[in-house]
Design brief:
It is built from 13 helices and two strands; from the N terminus they run αααββαααααααααα. By secondary structure, the protein is mainly alpha-helical. The protein has one domain. The longest helix has 37 residues, at 222-258.
């Protein structure tokens, strides 16, 4: 964790560039707010989206996106290509835990990035769009952890594919394409037609971003939130088992060929 914090501080300029590359929620906020000036948008679930609703939603998206981010897939691909993975395997800690610690250690720096956005929420007068029930906020905390676990284990699983092929970056690109469409990153998912929304409900992408954002903006009561958390953590557990199995089998191949 100390190494991870040191890296986050040392490469802070790189982190800032990455943050600037994740400002799509602000672009979508401007787009949907312009649409809402003509008339409020009523989603298929009956929720009304106006200017302030979109502001609260996309500011929440930006915050959640910063805090559930993971880049383990790119790290694994790089270390496999360079052969430096062998050094990580010599350390007395499982590499998956090491990757997790490195990603989590960047959260303090990323939290600093989200603080101005939190200030904007209050200055823009949209704080009333967020729930006041402390139980919802407790469930939101669990959903943030679950969202991060899904993101991290998906990164580890896709990164582990580089132990079986030349590179798995293109696979990560496909995952990100699904993420952008079905996670709620670009638009609220309840604006989908019912059939597409039903498909999104059973894909992991919604549980990375959509569920934490929905809880943060008060879209669900306690019972619905618990059901969503159950699905989210089932995805996290399933991806965790799959990622570790894929990693362990792939490392055997790496050791056999790379020494």
């Amino acid at each position: 964790m100390r190494i991870g914090v040191s890296e986050a501080v040392a490469y802070r300029a790189e982190m800032i560039v990455w943050v600037l590359a994740t400002t799509m929620p602000f672009i979508m906020l401007a787009l949907w707010s312009a649409v809402a000036t003509v008339a409020p948008i009523v989603s298929n679930s009956g929720r009304t989206y106006a200017g302030s609703t979109f502001t609260a939603y996309f500011l929440a998206v930006f915050i959640v996106r910063q805090l559930v981010a993971s880049w383990a897939s790119w790290e694994i691909n790089y270390e496999v290509r360079q052969g430096t993975l062998a050094m990580r395997l010599l350390r007395p800690i499982h590499p998956v835990i090491s990757y997790a610690a490195g990603n989590l250690a960047a959260l303090p720096m990323r939290s600093l990035v989200t603080l101005p956005v939190v200030a904007i929420i209050f200055l823009a007068g949209v704080a009333g769009s967020f729930p006041t029930d402390l139980r919802i906020w407790a469930l939101w905390g669990l959903s943030m952890l679950g969202g991060w676990l899904i993101t991290f284990f998906a990164n580890v699983a896709i990164g582990s594919l580089s132990l079986y092929m030349e590179s798995s970056i293109k696979v990560m690109d496909l995952w990100l394409a699904g993420f952008f469409v079905f996670s709620g990153y670009l638009y609220p998912l309840d604006m989908f037609p019912p059939v597409v929304r039903a498909i999104a409900d059973w894909l992991p992408f919604r549980y990375q971003i959509g569920v934490p954002v929905e809880l943060m903006t008060g879209a669900h009561g306690i019972d619905a939130a618990l059901q969503l958390l159950l699905r989210q953590w089932a995805w996290a557990a399933g991806l965790g088992v799959f990622a570790v199995l894929l990693w362990n089998n792939g490392v055997k191949r790496f050791q056999a060929f790379g020494g």
